[in-house]
Write a structure and sequence with these properties.
Elements: E1 5-7, E2 15-17, E3 53-55, H1 56-64, H2 66-69, H3 75-79, E4 88-89, E5 97-100, E6 103-104, E7 107-108, H4 119-127, H5 137-141, E8 144-147, E9 150-153, H6 170-182, H7 184-198
Parallel strand pairs: 2-9
Antiparallel strand pairs: 1-2, 3-5, 4-5, 6-7, 8-9
Protein backbone atom coordinates (compact mmCIF):
# COMPACT_ATOMS: atom_id res chain seq x y z
CA UNK A 1 0.00 0.00 0.00
CA UNK A 2 1.25 3.50 -0.85
CA UNK A 3 1.74 5.32 2.42
CA UNK A 4 0.47 8.87 2.75
CA UNK A 5 2.24 10.34 5.78
CA UNK A 6 1.01 13.15 8.03
CA UNK A 7 3.35 15.18 10.24
CA UNK A 8 2.90 15.10 14.02
CA UNK A 9 4.82 16.86 16.78
CA UNK A 10 5.91 14.26 19.32
CA UNK A 11 9.34 13.37 20.77
CA UNK A 12 9.05 9.72 19.69
CA UNK A 13 7.07 10.01 16.44
CA UNK A 14 7.18 12.70 13.78
CA UNK A 15 5.02 11.06 11.13
CA UNK A 16 1.92 8.89 10.98
CA UNK A 17 0.46 6.97 8.06
CA UNK A 18 -2.82 8.71 7.22
CA UNK A 19 -4.59 5.44 6.39
CA UNK A 20 -4.66 4.41 10.08
CA UNK A 21 -7.56 6.87 10.40
CA UNK A 22 -9.59 5.40 7.54
CA UNK A 23 -8.68 1.72 7.14
CA UNK A 24 -10.70 -0.67 9.27
CA UNK A 25 -10.38 -3.93 11.14
CA UNK A 26 -12.78 -6.48 12.57
CA UNK A 27 -13.66 -5.41 16.10
CA UNK A 28 -12.91 -8.75 17.80
CA UNK A 29 -10.27 -11.11 16.43
CA UNK A 30 -11.55 -14.02 18.50
CA UNK A 31 -14.91 -14.10 16.71
CA UNK A 32 -13.53 -13.69 13.18
CA UNK A 33 -12.68 -16.62 10.92
CA UNK A 34 -9.55 -15.30 9.24
CA UNK A 35 -8.70 -16.10 5.63
CA UNK A 36 -5.58 -15.45 3.60
CA UNK A 37 -6.88 -13.27 0.78
CA UNK A 38 -4.41 -14.46 -1.85
CA UNK A 39 -5.38 -18.14 -1.50
CA UNK A 40 -8.75 -18.05 0.25
CA UNK A 41 -7.41 -20.53 2.81
CA UNK A 42 -8.86 -20.27 6.31
CA UNK A 43 -6.06 -19.64 8.75
CA UNK A 44 -6.96 -18.91 12.33
CA UNK A 45 -4.62 -16.41 14.00
CA UNK A 46 -3.05 -15.74 10.62
CA UNK A 47 -1.21 -12.63 11.79
CA UNK A 48 0.73 -14.76 14.31
CA UNK A 49 1.98 -17.37 11.87
CA UNK A 50 5.53 -15.99 11.56
CA UNK A 51 6.17 -15.33 15.23
CA UNK A 52 7.14 -11.85 16.38
CA UNK A 53 9.91 -9.58 17.57
CA UNK A 54 10.16 -9.41 21.35
CA UNK A 55 12.07 -6.82 23.33
CA UNK A 56 14.56 -8.64 25.56
CA UNK A 57 12.81 -7.18 28.63
CA UNK A 58 9.56 -8.73 27.41
CA UNK A 59 11.36 -12.03 26.87
CA UNK A 60 12.51 -12.02 30.48
CA UNK A 61 8.98 -11.13 31.65
CA UNK A 62 7.54 -14.03 29.63
CA UNK A 63 10.09 -16.44 31.07
CA UNK A 64 9.30 -15.17 34.56
CA UNK A 65 5.68 -16.18 33.87
CA UNK A 66 6.61 -19.56 32.39
CA UNK A 67 4.93 -21.41 35.26
CA UNK A 68 1.61 -19.90 34.19
CA UNK A 69 2.16 -19.91 30.40
CA UNK A 70 3.87 -23.28 30.00
CA UNK A 71 1.01 -25.50 31.22
CA UNK A 72 -1.26 -24.05 28.53
CA UNK A 73 1.08 -25.16 25.74
CA UNK A 74 1.09 -28.64 24.28
CA UNK A 75 3.82 -30.75 25.94
CA UNK A 76 6.05 -30.73 22.85
CA UNK A 77 5.80 -26.93 22.59
CA UNK A 78 6.31 -26.48 26.32
CA UNK A 79 9.57 -28.42 26.07
CA UNK A 80 10.77 -26.66 22.90
CA UNK A 81 12.80 -23.47 22.75
CA UNK A 82 10.49 -20.46 22.95
CA UNK A 83 12.86 -17.83 21.55
CA UNK A 84 15.60 -17.63 18.98
CA UNK A 85 18.77 -17.21 21.07
CA UNK A 86 20.24 -14.61 18.72
CA UNK A 87 19.65 -11.05 19.87
CA UNK A 88 19.53 -8.25 17.31
CA UNK A 89 20.15 -4.57 17.85
CA UNK A 90 17.02 -2.53 17.17
CA UNK A 91 16.79 1.10 18.29
CA UNK A 92 13.01 1.13 17.80
CA UNK A 93 12.55 -1.06 20.90
CA UNK A 94 12.92 0.18 24.49
CA UNK A 95 15.95 -1.94 25.39
CA UNK A 96 17.50 -1.61 21.93
CA UNK A 97 17.65 -5.41 21.58
CA UNK A 98 15.10 -7.90 20.26
CA UNK A 99 14.70 -11.64 19.72
CA UNK A 100 12.16 -13.61 17.69
CA UNK A 101 9.67 -16.07 19.08
CA UNK A 102 10.17 -19.52 17.65
CA UNK A 103 7.84 -20.81 14.95
CA UNK A 104 6.37 -24.18 15.90
CA UNK A 105 4.41 -26.22 13.35
CA UNK A 106 3.85 -23.21 11.13
CA UNK A 107 2.88 -20.63 13.74
CA UNK A 108 4.21 -18.72 16.73
CA UNK A 109 5.00 -21.18 19.49
CA UNK A 110 2.59 -19.42 21.83
CA UNK A 111 -0.31 -20.59 19.62
CA UNK A 112 0.50 -24.26 20.31
CA UNK A 113 -2.30 -24.99 22.76
CA UNK A 114 -5.83 -26.34 22.79
CA UNK A 115 -7.68 -23.08 22.13
CA UNK A 116 -7.44 -20.14 19.79
CA UNK A 117 -5.31 -17.10 20.55
CA UNK A 118 -2.08 -16.27 22.32
CA UNK A 119 -1.15 -18.46 25.30
CA UNK A 120 0.42 -15.45 27.01
CA UNK A 121 -2.86 -13.53 26.75
CA UNK A 122 -4.86 -16.57 27.81
CA UNK A 123 -2.62 -17.18 30.84
CA UNK A 124 -3.09 -13.57 31.95
CA UNK A 125 -6.87 -13.77 31.62
CA UNK A 126 -7.14 -17.12 33.38
CA UNK A 127 -4.60 -16.21 36.07
CA UNK A 128 -5.87 -12.70 36.68
CA UNK A 129 -2.52 -10.98 36.14
CA UNK A 130 -1.66 -7.93 34.05
CA UNK A 131 -0.31 -8.81 30.60
CA UNK A 132 1.25 -5.37 30.09
CA UNK A 133 5.01 -5.72 29.74
CA UNK A 134 4.65 -9.47 29.21
CA UNK A 135 2.66 -9.95 26.00
CA UNK A 136 4.85 -8.32 23.33
CA UNK A 137 3.77 -4.75 22.64
CA UNK A 138 4.19 -5.24 18.89
CA UNK A 139 1.58 -8.04 19.02
CA UNK A 140 -0.84 -5.96 21.03
CA UNK A 141 -0.43 -3.07 18.60
CA UNK A 142 -0.94 -5.06 15.38
CA UNK A 143 -1.90 -4.14 12.66
CA UNK A 144 -0.08 -0.94 13.56
CA UNK A 145 3.68 -0.94 13.82
CA UNK A 146 6.47 1.61 13.90
CA UNK A 147 9.82 2.22 12.30
CA UNK A 148 12.13 5.06 13.17
CA UNK A 149 9.99 8.13 13.80
CA UNK A 150 6.97 6.83 11.83
CA UNK A 151 3.80 5.12 13.03
CA UNK A 152 2.70 2.76 10.25
CA UNK A 153 0.32 0.04 9.14
CA UNK A 154 2.02 -3.36 9.14
CA UNK A 155 2.81 -4.62 5.65
CA UNK A 156 0.93 -7.89 6.31
CA UNK A 157 -2.37 -6.20 7.15
CA UNK A 158 -3.86 -6.32 3.61
CA UNK A 159 -3.16 -10.06 3.37
CA UNK A 160 -5.84 -11.01 5.91
CA UNK A 161 -9.62 -11.04 5.59
CA UNK A 162 -9.98 -9.02 8.81
CA UNK A 163 -8.73 -6.04 6.79
CA UNK A 164 -11.76 -6.26 4.47
CA UNK A 165 -14.50 -6.19 7.09
CA UNK A 166 -16.54 -3.42 8.65
CA UNK A 167 -15.32 -2.37 12.06
CA UNK A 168 -13.48 0.40 13.89
CA UNK A 169 -10.65 2.26 12.22
CA UNK A 170 -7.15 1.06 12.98
CA UNK A 171 -6.58 4.17 15.06
CA UNK A 172 -9.78 3.82 17.09
CA UNK A 173 -9.03 0.18 17.85
CA UNK A 174 -5.52 0.96 19.13
CA UNK A 175 -5.99 4.47 20.54
CA UNK A 176 -5.97 3.53 24.23
CA UNK A 177 -3.04 1.19 23.74
CA UNK A 178 -1.02 3.89 21.97
CA UNK A 179 -1.62 6.10 24.99
CA UNK A 180 -0.51 3.32 27.33
CA UNK A 181 2.67 2.60 25.39
CA UNK A 182 3.72 6.11 24.35
CA UNK A 183 1.75 8.57 26.47
CA UNK A 184 -1.27 10.84 26.26
CA UNK A 185 0.67 13.50 24.34
CA UNK A 186 0.90 11.14 21.38
CA UNK A 187 -2.85 10.49 21.52
CA UNK A 188 -3.50 14.24 21.47
CA UNK A 189 -1.32 14.60 18.38
CA UNK A 190 -3.02 11.64 16.71
CA UNK A 191 -6.50 12.94 17.52
CA UNK A 192 -5.58 16.17 15.75
CA UNK A 193 -4.13 14.25 12.80
CA UNK A 194 -7.29 12.15 12.64
CA UNK A 195 -9.39 15.30 12.41
CA UNK A 196 -7.23 16.54 9.53
CA UNK A 197 -7.30 13.18 7.76
CA UNK A 198 -11.05 12.71 7.99
CA UNK A 199 -12.17 16.37 7.75
CA UNK A 200 -13.64 16.37 11.22
CA UNK A 201 -13.16 12.71 12.05
CA UNK A 202 -14.85 10.75 14.78
CA UNK A 203 -15.26 11.93 18.34
CA UNK A 204 -12.29 11.28 20.60
CA UNK A 205 -14.13 8.69 22.67
CA UNK A 206 -11.93 6.00 24.19
CA UNK A 207 -12.13 2.50 22.79
CA UNK A 208 -10.56 -0.58 24.32
CA UNK A 209 -10.09 -3.77 22.35
CA UNK A 210 -10.57 -6.76 24.61
CA UNK A 211 -8.05 -8.98 22.85
CA UNK A 212 -5.09 -6.63 23.08
Amino acid sequence: MNAHMLPIDHPRFRRVQAEIFTRRLVGDCMTHSCRMLDTGAVRIDACCQWGCDVDVAEREAILARSAQIGPLLRPEARAARWFDPEEELCPDYPSGRVVRTEVFEGACIFLAHDKRGCAIHRAALEGGWDLRGVKPAICRLFPLTYEGDALLIAEEYPEFSCSRTEGPTLYRITRDLLGELFGVDLVAQLDAAEARATRGGESARPMVRANR
